[in-house]
Specification:
There is one protein chain. By secondary structure, the chain is of the alpha+beta class. It is built from nine helices and 30 strands. The strands form eight sheets. Strands 17, 20, 22, 23, 24, 26, 28, 29 and 30 form a nine-stranded mixed beta sheet that branches. A four-stranded mixed beta sheet has the order 7-4-5-8. Helix 5 packs across helix 7. The longest helix is centred in the N-terminal third of the chain and has 28 residues. Bound molecules: zinc ion (ZN).
Amino acid sequence: MGKVIKQGIIYTLSIALAITIMVFVNFADRYELTPKKVYKVYLDGKAVGNIKNKQELEDYINQEQTELKLKYGVDKVYVPSGVDIKKCTTYEKKVLSAEEVHNIITEEKPFTLKGYKITINPSEETSTSEKDKSTDNGEKKKIVINVLDKDMFDKAVKSVVKAFVSLEDYNNFKNDTQTEIKDTGKLIEDIYIAQNITEKPAYISTDEEIFTDEKTLTKYLLFGAVKDDKYYTVQEGDTIESISYANKLATAEFLIVNPEFTSETNLLSPGQQVKVGLINPIINVIVEKHEVFDQESRYQTIQEEDPNMALGTEKVVTEGQNGTDRLTAKIKYDNGDTSNVVVVSSESIKPPVDRVVKIGTRSYSGSTTPVVVSGNWGWPTVSPYYVSSPYGYRWGRVHEGIDIAGSGSGSPIFASQAGTVVSSISHWSVGINVVINHGNGYYTTYAHLSSKLVGVGATVQKGQQIGTMGSTGRSTGTHLHFGLFIGGEPYHGGHSADPMQLFR
Ligand SMILES: [Zn+2]
């Protein structure tokens, strides 16, 4: 072996030794020969480091996060979600201080607070109240609300309920002190929230929305958002009715938004601030009532043909007179709107007097059938009936007709006046729907029918049955949506008007 080779081997060995020593020294620096017990901190499964004492870290976090404690009014702040602290035995030498771990975590993820996740599950029953009908997304979604205090949530729900039920009625219902009905009156049979609400204790991340006060949560549950209130300053001459109308609210809705007023006849003073925001409640407050009330029963018009009178002439033989029915009904209210009416019984207190009209049929030219010239409009349903929703604004949209319930599914629907059927369709929104042109620019519409008896082009007489009451299309509960359009066909030049004007 040559000298050079020998030297080379020595050289190589020395290098190897040096490396070994270096590796060992480095190893000895990081690892120890005897293992020790530590806590290993993980963040989303990734090791952050070891700490000596778990409690120490939790205390440090709690002590450092004073700002969060003040903001949420709590006395404890917890580690972020995804942080896992496991006791283990390690040979690793390095142990981080509580401060170091705190600082690493702070960079990565927000801390958490102990609270509740409240889930409001959509209700099948009330996902389509009629006020949502003109929108395609009337369906409600599952909503999760974070709170720190469960009682605060319960109180906020109670505040929402009180937007729809007066405090007095609510207390009488709760304490079983409602006044019994003697002649007419109302009894609350049940008050409940349509949605299934579940609550689960949880550590809530501070980057999520957390409700900490009852007022803000009530506002969210009622208005569907925590936006600033929309106010209006009362001017000279304003009434609750005029302000409501100008802001596309029904007066009943104005009273929901402004609970300090008890009636639409309450006086306002100039300069006073009132709320005019639209509500879009997250929850549906259902109130079921037993009601006994008197209802006008409308007279029928009976036409008698008289060959001694000239064609086109008419003569009133007996003036009609409306009677009175006393109705007992179960009425369901969904966030203040009537959603279902079942008439349990009705008794006639005063029977109506039929109006009898003689119609001339004498004709010199021969052929034609008598033309009905009677100016009176006929009620489109049989009695007993109940107008469950008037014409006008409902939370920012016009309800272009009146809802008439009470006579039940399959009960007859009559043409309100003679005319020609211009539309007879089945549609996802209005359901089975008939439109009649009465001439002089007047059109009436009959929606949500369960069946129709007339087609386009048919000539109908006043009081002729054109279909049966139903709940087709986007409808809650069996009812007739009866509309009046003037000046042209509905949505083709005609504008809607209150059909009640036909019966005054
Ligand atoms: Zn309607």
